[in-house]
Amino acid sequence: MNSRIFQHNTFTTLSIGFYKGTITLKEALTHGKVGIGTLDTANGEVTIIDGIAYHGDSENQVRLVEENETMPYVAMVEHQPIVKFTDNSVSNSEDFLSALTKRFPTANTAYTIVMTGQFKEVTVS
């Protein structure tokens, strides 16, 4: 399977204080529909699923990201599922990770994970 990761900037640039957004969400979405990143000033994290970007900030608030907002860092992929499974017995993150990693073809590869489900609560931290 051919797949690629688009990465705009690196974690190193963030760690040295480069927080100014240099790519818009609209431009990032031309490289994939699933991704992670942060917004201008690095306040919180951005999660992108099915082309919709959600920003979770330092106050644990979540909102939709506008396509003209800029990011200093973003990594995008065009998600292509190679494994699909349903497991209704998973009740915590440790069980989920165990159930998931058993299904990876190899441990030495980067994977994107898209998970759907019904949750009593979700904590952004």
From TrEMBL:
GO-annotated biological processes: acetoin biosynthetic process
Pfam families in the record: AAL_decarboxy (PF03306)
Enzymatic reactions: (2S)-2-acetolactate + H(+) = (R)-acetoin + CO2
EC category name: lyase
EC number(s) per entry: 4.1.1.5
Family stated for the protein in its record: Belongs to the alpha-acetolactate decarboxylase family.
Stated name of the protein: Alpha-acetolactate decarboxylase
Organism: Schinkia azotoformans LMG 9581
